[in-house]
Task: structure prediction
Amino acid sequence: MESLERFAQNQRIIEEFASHWLADISSDLGRLVHVSSQRNVATGRYSHPALDEVYSESAVHQALTYCHEELFQRVLEAQLEHLEWDLRVFLAGLDAAPHEAASRWLELEFFRQLVPLGSPATLRDLFLSNMRTILSIIAAGIPTMQTAA
Result:
């Protein structure tokens, strides 16, 4: 019975997180950036100030881990053209010009932080390769992959 209660609680946390903090983000990549930012780089644990007030630390961690993995999988399953569009939408919302932000992401390899811990090496490498390719196109000022083809 305890595992069923834990499942129900995790489902409530996921629904609350998605409806309050992810719903207004217009791109899958933006949602992935947001959920990955909830992970403490030193400990690997996820937390969220508002959720931590209502739910246990371990429940929030489990639920946000699940969200991160699901969003990562969604981004991986997208065609490169869609991922490029999604990344352009996300970068357009930042304070810097998209080509400048893309250059910084490449230099710092910021996109590595978007990979959930424990992801299989093949999926991680595919994601990193896709991000490098698309960021390089954006950083070079090429309008879109479709236009370049």
In short: The mean pLDDT is 91. The two ends are 56 Å apart (CA to CA).
